[in-house]
Amino acid sequence: MDWKYRRLPLTLYGLLALVFVPTSFGRPTYSISLESALRAELFTTNNYEVLQRPEQKVVVRISITILTINDLNIKDQALSISGYLTFNWKDPRLDWSDPTNTTQDYGNVDFLFSTEEYVWRPSIIIENSIQDMGVISDKSTPMRITSRGMVVWSPSGIFVVSCESDTTYYPLDTQDCKLKVSSKAYTINEVSLVLTLDPVILNFYSENGEWDLVSASGLDVRDTPIGQSSFSSVDFDIKLRRRPIFHIINTLFPVVLMAILIAMVFKLPVDSGERNGFALTVLLAYAVYLSIISENIPSTSVSVCYL
């Protein structure tokens, strides 16, 4: 067979590959100048307004990544958490996926990064915070913007929230705390908060030496009425169990030992004259331990420690 005919199938395969394999011919490749042109068109040419909501009702999806439990102060009834909240919402003004809506094809620019100074963000607060009641803000954390206008923002911080403690079974207690996130200024008809499919992420969680994280979950969305308006809110439930070994050795064991010793007073001879002194010594030791325990539990009558 002639060599020209042998090359014919290869030539046909090459033509088919050019026809059916997607290419980016005619589309400008990514470059800094292309991204700069896109930024100029989105934020300057289109007169992007930071204070204007992207839509009449913006749906904001929320999740939390817990890095560690810093402390649960039973006496002050305060829970401290290190982590970051992740918010994502759609801003149609930042959509460049359709080349017919832009001056040129920006298809090779997959993402843009910006900050809250240039992009609209929802006004959100930690409702039960005991340190900072201001709106969540983080100018140093960039927002990730996709070509379809999805904005992802993950401000991090140390969140200190109130946690009503139940000291009935102290030191073998389990505490149920909540972190309440609520929209501020924007009513439920303007900004709606919803939970993501995986609202609590524990992939990077570090164990706490005193408290064991039993469970963490996102609760149902709720409405918070304030005056004539209602605001969208979501709750994260965090259940902690105290690690008991330290307190068993340093609290329960001495108390049980003193209870046994106080019964031993009846083993002393009546004429020894040591009964009163022995009983008072044990009583004073017990009083010292009660003062130590009372320093670690809140002054409340809602729940009373059995000790």
Concise structural overview:
The chain is of the alpha+beta class and 307 residues long.
- CATH homologous superfamily label of the largest domain: Neurotransmitter-gated ion-channel ligand-binding domain
At CATH level 2, the architecture of the largest domain is Distorted Sandwich
Structural class label: alpha+beta
The backbone outline, from C-alpha atoms, is elongated
Question: How much beta, percentage-wise?
Answer: 25-35%
Subcellular location: Membrane
Membrane topology: Multi-pass membrane protein
Keywords: Membrane, Transmembrane, Transmembrane helix
Main location: membrane
Structure write-up:
- The termini are far apart.
- Mean pLDDT is 85; it is low at 1-8 and 10-25.
- The chain has two domains: 32-243, Acetylcholine Binding Protein, Chain: A (Distorted Sandwich); 246-296.
- The radius of gyration is 32 Å and the shape is elongated.
- The protein is 24% helix and 35% strand.
- The longest helix has 22 residues, at 275-296.
- Strands 1, 2, 3, 5, 6, 7 and 9 form a seven-stranded mixed sheet that branches.
- By secondary structure, it is an alpha+beta fold.
- β5 (143-146) and β6 (148-153) form a beta hairpin.
- The protein has helices spanning 3-20, 32-45, 245-263, 275-296; strands at residues 58-73, 78-95, 111-114, 124-126, 143-146, 148-153, 156-162, 174-183, 191-201, 211-218, 222-226, 229-242.
Keywords, separated by commas or semicolons:
307 residues; 2 domains; 7-stranded mixed β-sheet; 24% helix; 35% strand; transmembrane helix; Neur_chan_lig-bd; Neuro_actylchol_rec; membrane; transmembrane signaling receptor activity
